[in-house]
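Chapter summary example.
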Amino acid sequence: MASTRVHLVLVHGLFSSARMWQAFTALIEDDPELAGWVSVHPFAYDSPLVRLRPDRRVAETDDIADQLGTFLETELAGAERIVLVTHSQGGLVAQRFLARKLWNGEGRELSRIRHFTMFACPNTGSGFFLTVRKALKLWNNPQEQQLRPFDRSVTEAQRTVLSSVVYAREHGAQECPIPVRAYGGSADDIVPPVVARGVFPRGGVVPADHFGIVQPADRSAHAYQAVRQALLEAAAEPGPPAPTPEPAPVPLPESAPALPDGTDDAGAPSQPPPAAEDPDLAPFPPPPYAQQADGQLKGKDRLALVAHLLSDEARQQVHVVAGLGGSGKSRVALEAAERAARAGYRVWWVSTPELSARMRMIARDLGAPSITVEHAWLVGPPGAAMDLVWTLLDECPDPWLLIVDNADDPERLAPPDGPVSDGTGWLRTPKNPQGTVLVTSRVRSKQAWGEGVRVHQVLPLDEDDGASMLLERTGGIGGTNEDARRLAQRLGGLPLALRGAADVIKAVHESPITLDSDIRDFESFRQVVAPDGDAAADRDGPHLTELLGREIVEKVCGIGLDLLTEHRLPHAPTLLKVLACLSIAPVPYRCLLAGPALAQSPLFPGAGSLRPALEGLEQLGLVDAYEREGVTDRNLAAVLTLHPVVHGVLREDEEVRRRPADYYGLALRMLRSATHPRNPDHPANWPLWAALAPHTLEVSRTCLLGDLGMTDRTVRTEALELARLTARYLIATGLLGPAYALLLPLVERCTSYGFDPDDREILGLRHEQGRISLDREQLRQAEQVLGLVVTARTRILGEDHADTLASRHKLARAINEQAGREGEAEVLLRSIVEAENEVRGPEHYDTLVVRHTLARTVLALGADREAETEARQILDISRRNQWPPATPEILRVRETLTHALLRQNRAEEAERVIAGALRDASQPQDSHLVMRLRYTYVLALLGIRGRTPEAVNALRALVRDLDRVVASEHPLSVQARGTLAAMRGMPT
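The structure predicted for these 988 residues follows.
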């Protein structure tokens, strides 16, 4: 029978002991509601300042984490409900314990841990007294080292805890959902609140210093109440979860499973978006190591190049690994990435189609606070995001390797106002002596990259290395060494062509798919590639150029496709050509094959399961299928890729060029089907959109601006809608640069593909352009763009159409945020609210968003009571409809209500409202929204007699946090500093 007893395990911090918890223990023992069913277990470990005895070492954090695991297994072997509470470094110990369990596949053993609360944990490192700590002669304490900012092992553990504990969905070998809370003390100078909260979305700030936070004076203390609530939640949970069976390996689908429906239509959500977690919290994905399945890297020159790239000599430089398409540039980069990771480097692999999103993830991976990232990507000047990433890279204390793959258009890495050779864009020479940049590209010109860049040419394999690759990949069934040499010579030593030839020969012999063919071995393959009339070319092998290399790959690819076509897999070549219409980024094929688009396409008449076609393509090496590490959604984890050369060859295929509406139209409809129920504004849908965005961008641009001669207006109309939704996703996640780059040419060149600027489809794009200007705080420009859109939409759709109302609201916001124009905005907003009540209804989420804008406007005009009434009515509706209290818009409404109450000298009510908002906020403490709530909380405290000292401490903590994460001229920083200056000498 399951026990309801809860076991509280307390873990102390650095240079401390279990005595730290005496106050907590005494309060729990005296608490009549807890004493009967809570057992307290302080966990003690050795944490000396220095160790003077040479025969004893100071335990490292991993040692203590394992010691904690042993404690739980032995002392609490029968415990079914455990609550972990930690102080300071104890939080890092517990995180490391959880991470190591998950790395070892022991996630199910963690299911009895029902809650994890951290107090004053240095989640992004403690800078307190850092200079002195490093300067002490006897200082070599491994526990202290993990308190330092940017410690890699801490970051690794945090990423695992976030992805596999905080955001886990089920109990399994490598994930276990546990509620995690992180609290900081408002007066803590050792671990400031923004550091204590770190990347964890739940928790808060309590009035205490670093040590007082775990020494509560009585049961009313905020820290005690937080632990008490955790214990009550643990007791209320059901018994231990039933073991989740290990998932079977996921095969290629007979027909891919349908994705769960979204809550609403993408254009009109009747519920608010789920409370937004930080979009940058996902761990940075590892390089695609699965693509190393070809075997060991071949070629002495390639192995020497990898060794050089990881040498001390190569650091603080940009290296371009250049060569023909199919020559193995990415394979060299993968080898370097794997060796660097094993050597302790931090490695970031950036695929060019995902450039901006991946660079933003690097900024967060390097510890940039949320508000800093938001400012750089949203409202910073051109190049601000680039400057931020490079500032962080140059300050990173660990050795690192940044790889940008397939940069065949160098100008994509350029700064906003110059060429890439300026060295001020995404591609720069590191100032950090431990940093190295590696780029793979077909562009070999040093002039294109700039003077300081080292260009390394990757040549084709010689005949011996090529023969070795053929023999190893076929298992020796293709013929003699000499046969392999001749074929390698005929294929120009291109690894991509060699791999394709080996896979065809192996498939003919070993595939369960019937592939009767004249090709049986190396010699017969060579004869097919080089008919008798071309035999003379074999004597010295082809002198490779980009064009000839492409022709060789095209021949090899064609042989494989012919085999599949002729032998019972006629849909395989067609499917491959459709996939080539997408981007070169990894393709989450399960999502795309799940919908009805394939069955409805004339390209697949009577097609049943496409599983054999996918298997055939993979066996012949025409696609690489693998599972992405760290992705919990299996529909998104399973991806396939095409080599860029194969991708390019198939896009130029005669049939694809002749029938673009069928091929690109099908790719477009597959993407529309996968994204249709998934509102791009909802954070819950962002992982899907992130995986598909490179493909939606590529297909929509190609259909509208490419040289296909697309005459099918239905396809073009669908492409415009896909582009609009993609822009919404990019705007929602703060990627305003890519959104602007998508929309601008589509609007400016709309007449080239048969649309007028005032057509409703183009107006949808122009509306999103206005939103970008609004988010960038370019208010005059936003007003101009949105004003024209409102005029056109009113004429075409009517004044009260949902789309017109959306543009009218954005226009009113642009006007309202310009000082002195609140009266104009009020008139507009009242008419919009009236229309929204009729069109969408008084309790629709969009209606309430407009009402909130109206409440803020009338508050600015001095109508404090009306603003209060509006805000309270919105909150009543949100509670009635059970909307999450952490929804960002609802938090902003509570902020507005607080200001309305303060204007009426009702500070105590205001303090309760804003304190509740801070408790409910799930965003990081350093996010712009939470920083604003914290400032509003200070204003509320100042209005309450006797709480000025508390307000001063809270404001000083906020100013310190702002100093860490934003420039001094940031508006919130200016406001907070001005208030702090005004408070000097204020009576308490």
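To summarize the output: Residues 816 and 878 are 24 Å apart (CA to CA).
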